[in-house]
Write the structure tokens for this entry.
Amino acid sequence: MNEHVRIFSAGGPIMSPDELEAAIRAVGAERYHDKHPFHKLLHGGKLNKGQVQAWALNRYCYQEAVPRKDAAFMSRIHDRDLRREWIHRINDHDGNSIDEPGGIERWLALTTGLGLDRDYVTSMRGALPATRFAVEAYVHFVREQPLVVAIASSLSELFAPKIHKERIAGMLENYDFIDDDVMAYFKRRLNQAPRDANFALQFVKDYAKSRYIQEACIEAVRFKCNVLWAQLDALNHAYVTPGQIPPGAFKPEA
């Protein structure tokens, strides 16, 4: 497993595994996107249908990038056990059988339920430029960083179940154009995200063997939270504040 920790060593006291976990969780407490104003508007029923459509369409770009990120990560792994563990993440999003359509298909059920054309969504033509830049930055980060740091960037999943529960309850309660079927993606992630996060957290605690790499792992969680936050910044600016919708981006019907 030495390949997982190929990174420059640095001095300084090494945190215990529990201290490292606490530092990672503190990042979520500080900057996970459940604290973003757009998130609060979305879950509180304060957005109109067009604004919710814009959120779902842009978020598709992130959903589409996740299995590409994981495939890029797997291409660098020589350890078969780790590949066997990680590949289910791709299957969770892309699907692997008729009985398991995958998270991307469930997200498209959401966008279709919101009245968006499937081909338009999957083309990503209407996405905000900032959305595209943010999600591709995440793919590049995972492709380029040391393996244990790349794994650490997935640990925003530690904080995901809370936001999914809020999203399910808030959107079902506050929007008459949302029904139980279109929320299937979030319901499935209530089980998938904790499983994935627990594995990744234990891996980081086991293989972050210097203070340098521990700090890099904590910074990776900050980076991932910033990726998620930046997407909501872009949505808030374009569709709420009001700012300006960039040329070519989705424009809700009046």
